Amino acid sequence: MFQSTLVSMRPYFVVAPLLSLSLVALTGTPASAVVVQVNGNDYDLTTSSTSPLALPSLFDLPAMGGKMPWWGDSNLAATFAQQVFNSLGEGSVPGSGPLFAFELNGDPFFDVTSWKQDLLNASIQTQEYTSQASLATYAILAPVPTPAPLPILGIASAFHAARRLRRRLGR
Description:
By secondary structure, the chain is α+β, with helices and mostly antiparallel strands. It has three helices and six strands, in the order αββαββββα.
């Protein structure tokens, strides 16, 4: 009776490690767009084409889960725009980098205030006002990558457990 249970479990020992391995291959870590240093801290930045109405969590204080450490501080937003300069490429406005949003003005149909960096001159930043409903390219913190060794350790552990079970059963 125990032998028939083992036979029905054999596919699991083969499929589980393969499934885990395929999940590792599918979950790639995002590449860093650019790392800038502001006030002695390094920030990994990327861009997102969105709007405050579509993804309101981005447009919040960092302590509340927002992805813009300059949020609420116009001077800090301008500093970030200047540090990034042309490293993130062109944003929604031709000739300018992505928007460094720092303030929402009123209800959803009013403006988002942002700084944008001129891509040809590092000393020129200008303010941009966009509707909260319109899509624009905003600078944000890059997602933190998941450590790669963890899934691999899980695969190794499952393989080791399967080998011990086979040895104990005499196979």
